[in-house]
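Appendix B. Chain record.
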Amino acid sequence: MRPTLLAALTLLATGCAGPAEMPTEAPDTMPTDLSNPLLAEWTGPYGGVPAFDAMDLDDLEPALEAGMAAHLAEIDAIAQNPAPPTFENTIVAMERAGKPIERAFTYYGIWSSNLSSPEFREIQGRMAPRLSDYGTQITQNAALFDRVRAVYDARETLGLRPDQVRLVELTYDGFARNGATLDAEAKARYAAIDQRLSELYTAFGNHVLADEEGYVTYLSADQLSGLPASVVAAAAAAAESRGRAGEYAITNTRSSMDPFLTYSDERDLRETVWRTYYSRGDNGDENDNNALITEILALRDERVGLLGYETFAAWRLENRMAQTPERAMDLLLAVWPAAVARVREEVADMQAVADTEGADITIEPWDYRYYAEKVRQERYALDSDEVKQYLQLDRLNEAMFYVAGELFGFAFTPVTDGSVPVFHPDVTVFEVTNRDTGALVGLWYLDPFARPGKRSGAWATTYRSHTTFDGPKTVLASNNSNFVPGAPGEPSLISLDDAETLFHEFGHALHFLASNVAYPGLDGGVRDYTEFQSQLLERWLLTDEVIDRFLVHVDTGERMPAELVEKIRRAGTFNQGFATTEYLASSLIDMKLHTLDDPSEVDPDAFERETLAELGMPSELVMRHRTPHFGHVFSGEGYATGYYGYLWADVLTSDAAEAFAEAPGGFYDAEVAQRLVQYLFAPRNAIDPAEAYRLFRGRDADIAPLMRDRGFPIPAGTE
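Structure tokens predicted for this chain:
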């Protein structure tokens, strides 16, 4: 199965879903009727678009069953082809197969991530093991793998282009790393493990979502001390939408928790909100995830053992840029001492402020953001809420379009004629064209606001990726966030951190839109590389061109004052101890859990406490994602032993940013931008990432720019 469809299966079988009457065996027969509307070819403009306005949950389960049956029939026809295996009749045939089920997966992904409901979660729970079994039937199809292996063995003699050779290698790897080389008994056990893991991933994500939806802190008017008007208005709107008009709701999401902890003068309420947020999945009730984590770790370890690997981490990192857990750990631990040392300095500064105020407290985790903001204002005269008045969501969208135009030559125009259906009124759609030629590039969907049933965080995805092997396909890209909307009729204001996240996720969308690959199987990426492009785009948020044009005051329309810009830039490394340490702690726990000799008896809570103590984790903060709600790692496998990848990618980011900074045209230098698109965005996974970076930079990246960016001392021997 091609990597893109494997990735889709992982998402589907691992999304936040739930309960639990799950069949253990596939039915004897499966429907093959492809008339289901969720399987139908997309119609309308732009090469066809998903019929999001016609989604009916009653159609989902039969669509998945029929789509799987049809795809398996296509796969069987490829496997049983009497002609000798060739690139065209095996690899390309696989690339061409499975279109109806891919369309169903698009709708499934919307219900899973953007519109979840108890009814959907029941379906998701039933389908998780079926989807796992479906994937196994393909990756463990011996006749199909024999054909793939024959093409793989002959790949250097077939006259293939380099991208075609890479596609063959990625396809073979997708089979070999997922049990295709095992004997019959081991294959059966491998399949059983995958099926059970799909159930566990579904339950894990569902538990976290239940805690996010189920725990809301309601405030009265006399509990709002310190909160800016924008936060109060958003909390009032959140309460009213939950039937609690006249109250104020702090929801159990980062976008609501973070500003409350930053500004609220009510220390007892800060502790309540902090504990509620960081206890998701860890409340000792029916949604507690600790036992699930232990079973997940044990099954992952057993599964890769069948393939001959010592640990899950060794298996996972083999085909990534880091290559080994040791190399990833070396990077994390190279940065850790400097980050922790900076935390000590930050805590001392905060404690001094608290002591001066006569607070009579010792800084605790629920105080960190609050007193960090006071230090920021004292040291840099920088008020985060003042900055927020210049960060209007609509204007930031315009800023991103400007950057995309300058670097990529893209133009974005809103689609307002109703020709493109959306799945929620919050969603807006933009047509993307080449601004010089007018040629269509694709569509960009934006779903920016938090709501019940929408998974937390921010993410990017595609509903259709670029390919050319069967004629050009229009890209359908999507960005999704969980910002708190403004009060009715008011602009939506977001924090500087949220603005950086917005640019980050737009970087993923540009990666999709810039693709020039021929085959779907090359339109993915290597996890510790694909975050690089998105992290790099964050650097354009505070360029002079963006500030001058788009960062204007919500009330006056005046450009952000030069003195405020200077304060932001001077404070650029402020609180890097907190930001880096909370991230590194999550990455280190992820890596250490997946390098255990025997994880079958691990107590996740105890392991987290003891490991962080051994590392010298400061008590004044916690992991960014505590283990019981670490969805990146335990509601699926996309980031499992891969959370380190953000730092690995940031090494590339800092190094690449210096290439722009050193260029005559700065961050808008045309020659560097051309190399950026040509080597780092357009090829997607058609070129080995390390080689692609060398083509862009002329050398490998090093860690020194990263340390400079964060204001940390550069480790000896790294320059």
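Further analysis of this model is presented in Appendix C.
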